[in-house]
Amino acid sequence: MAHQTIAPVLIGKQEYFPQVSSVSFEGHSSSNPFAYKFYDPARVIAGKSMKDHFKFAVAYWHSFCGTGADPFGSGPRPMPWLQNPDPIQKAKDKMDAAFEFMTKMGLNYYCFHDFDLVEEGSDLQVSRYRLESIADYALEKQENSGIKVLWGTANLFSHPRYMNGAASNPDFSIVAYAGAQVKNALDISIKLGAENYVFWGGREGYMSLLNTHMKQEQEQLARFFTMARDYARKKGFKGYFFIEPKPAEPSKHQYDFDAATVLGFLQKYDLLEDFKLNLEVNHATLAQHTFAHEVQVAVDSGALGSIDANRGDEQNGWDTDQFPNNHMELVEAMMIILQSDGFVGGGVNFDAKLRRNSTDLEDLFYAHIGGMDAFAKALIVADKILRESDYLKMKNERYQSFQEEKGQQFLRGELKMEDLSIYSWNQGEPEAKSGKQELYENLIAEYLYRFI
Ligand code: XUL
Ligand code: CO
Fold it and tell me: Atom 2, ligand 1: which residue's CA is nearest?
């Protein structure tokens, strides 16, 4: 096992993960569970280092706040950094644990909700004070380690006040409260140099249309996004805003249903320049889409901002947020991403949680190592398929007829319905051409074993 010394300044007063000193790349023949088999940060694929392709980020909420509690019972996960009764000290301990973990993993980014960093206070003033205190501490840790914020966000769904929504709430006083909270979240995101800012609208939707003015609520949402954008720009924020689509849960229906719905919304309210999408694998499947579908929709509009990496469960319908390991799914997505300009501003955030019964502290390492290796392998395989196989040729040949005269005229808008009719009367029944889906699928399966 390759052990590197970690500068003591990066570890807090207490070492929370003494069982691991550092995780580094050892190659696919290594059997060290604390080593990367495929993720080699410096390795260049398609002109960019793996590190820059992915910008892997840890999700503060799942990894350092989540105890494994579910609707049926409290959390069994031991959280030694959550023991101090003083909220500020507890937040600092949590941050020590987070930075120790990220440093040992070689992770360069993290993502947070405001009240992941520190518990919400009894009122806005107390919350503001707590956020400022922890942001000062975070800034120091960031400067010492070089770790950065991929995106920040505000939790507008956990507190009971948001039970009817935040920006889309039927009560203006809740909308204003959400505004106060987002202003604070933007301020600390800017202070911490966050590269992007996310809106996930868990309760921006409805439970029943009977009591809901849907049109007005969506207008409220657009107004709120516009105000947040204008405020952040005024304060010097240069990054992108991301909307994270999800069809439902906790709302029965969420307005940001899927990539196509959000793109239509952003276009309607003229927000597409500043707002891109943060796509989550398990949200795609909840919307009855493949992840590749959502990625393709975003890429086609130049709006693939970032992704929340995870996976759902094949049998359960809900958002299980498991760590990603579906290679077929990831290779397909990476093939699309490689054919685009990559993420617009964002990267790969592990919005994934350990299973409730994964209670060893080292499980957090296995989970992230597996996820990062799955993406790294997918990148290597996707690049190889695109460069070495007949994939692109096969796909382009399906559309060959559009390279010919009539096809070109059609695409240029030079034909009328009458022309299509004359063409077909002359041609007769078109020849059947196979879509060859199985052959395409075999390509991915084959290349998954030609990865070296
Ligand atoms: C919930 C979800 C959120 C967002 C951030 O399904 O994905 O954690 O990523 O609010
Ligand atoms: Co997410």
Answer: 200
- 225 close to 272: Cβ distance less than 8 angstroms: no
430 in a domain, yes or no? Answer: no
What is the model's pLDDT at position 450? 83
Q: Where are the beta strands (DSSP E) in 76-123?
A: 109-113
Predicted local distance difference test score (pLDDT) of residue 4: 44
Convert the pLDDT of each residue in 68-82 to its tens digit: 999 999 999 999 999
Mean pLDDT, each 10-residue run in order, the chain (452 residues): 44 87 97 98 98 98 97 96 98 98 98 98 98 98 98 98 98 98 98 98 97 98 98 98 98 98 98 98 97 98 98 91 96 98 97 98 98 98 97 98 98 98 97 97 94 60
DSSP helix/strand/coil, 274: coil
Give the mutation target among 182, 280, 281, 285 for probing the ligand 1 site: most ligand atoms within 8 A of CB. Answer: 280
Residue 363's contacts (CB-CB under 8 Å, 6 or more residues apart) are: 354
The answer to whether residue 12 is domain-embedded is yes
Boundaries of domain holding 171: 8-388
For residue 285, what is the domain's CATH number?
3.20.20.150
* Residue nearest atom 8 in ligand 1 by C-alpha distance: 351
Model pLDDT, residue 7: 47
| Dist. CA 205–CA 252, nearest whole Å | 7
User: Residue 385 corresponds to which amino acid?
Assistant: I
CA of 352 relative to ligand 2 center, distance in Å: 8
Domains contained in the chain, number:
1
